[in-house]
Amino acid sequence: MVLKNPKAKGSRLELKAKAEIESTGYYCVKSGGSFGLFDLLCTPYSSKSMGLAVQVKANRKPSRKEMKAMAEMRLPDDYCKQVWIWHDRKGWEKITVI
Q: Nearest 10 degrees: CA dihedral of 35, 39, 44, 50?
């Protein structure tokens, strides 16, 4: 089956990930247009947790080039880089980028 609007699916998944992260005590900002490396930047309400920079994907892992770019991206020391992959009918796979 061909997806009629893949951008809409991506946006829905970004909002779904944002809601899940916010439910654990974070304030998240969704990147407009998602042309950067990360779709969501999330700051914890408590200073005990790390911030999150999240790339959201549907049914596939990022390319090696994308993974390398994310690994090389400089963020504050108290931020963690993650890739959240939504697998249809299965749910989230969460990968921490080192």
A: -90
Per residue in 24-77, pLDDT (tens digit) is: 999 999 986 656 889 999 999 988 889 999 999 999 999 999 999 999 999 999
Whether the pLDDT of residue 2 is over 90: the answer is no
In whole angstroms, give the CA distance from residue 67 to residue 72: 9
First to last CA, the chain: 35
Rounded to whole angstroms, the Cα distance separating 48 from 40 reads 20
pTM: 0.89
The Cα 61–Cα 53 span in angstroms is 16
Across the chain, where does the E strand assignment appear? 26-30, 40-44, 51-58, 79-87, 91-97
Per 3-state DSSP, the chain is made up of helix, strand and coil in percentages (nearest 5) of: 25, 35, 40
